[in-house]
Recover the amino acids of this structure.
């Protein structure tokens, strides 16, 4: 379970003469913790969610066109779902195509120059649908187009308040580990 501890980390001067100092409680957010520390803890939180589960086809699928083999980690689905939630929380609203470009790599074309390889959109779409079912992510509607049968267009997905709370609580619980590995983080 996540433990809540508050840090008195930021101070600012108040008053006309600047003699009074106010300390405020600052919650650690997803922006404050490096991804290599945050991702395993967030993946454990994803594994606890009922709506997020590994699909049957997950052990046979490649994650991108530039990969040669399926992932070897046992919890790769929860790691990918956690990474998608982190990217949506940081960059949202964001769409499936942009996420596929973010998770892609370089496609080896033999003697020809390498080209950008995109990640599997099916994996990203399925993970986003599971995050929507868990109530952590929502679609952002933009406008309705069409004459006879109107169609709703979306700008992508953004994190919900429940998703932001989950990500921030996990980030806050990993603050001590981050300060041990990166000693300069304690001033932020």
């Amino acid at each position: 379970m996540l433990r809540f501890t508050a840090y008195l980390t930021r101070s600012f001067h108040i008053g006309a003469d600047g003699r009074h100092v106010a300390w405020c409680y600052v919650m650690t957010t997803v922006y404050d913790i490096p991804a290599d520390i945050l991702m395993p803890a967030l993946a454990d939180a994803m594994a606890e969610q009922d709506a997020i589960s590994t699909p049957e086809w997950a052990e046979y699928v490649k994650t991108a066109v530039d990969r040669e083999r399926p992932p070897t980690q046992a919890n790769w689905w929860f790691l990918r779902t956690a990474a998608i939630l982190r990217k949506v929380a940081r960059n949202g609203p964001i769409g499936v195509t942009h996420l596929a470009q973010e998770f892609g790599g370089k496609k080896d074309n033999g003697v020809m120059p390498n080209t950008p390889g995109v990640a599997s959109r099916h994996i990203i779409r399925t993970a986003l649908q599971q995050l929507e079912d868990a109530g952590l992510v929502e679609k952002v509607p933009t406008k309705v187009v069409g004459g006879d049968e109107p169609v709703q267009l979306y700008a992508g997905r953004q994190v919900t308040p429940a998703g932001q709370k989950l990500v921030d609580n996990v980030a806050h619980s990993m603050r001590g580990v981050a300060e041990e590995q990166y000693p300069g983080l304690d001033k932020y």
The chain has a mean pLDDT of 84.
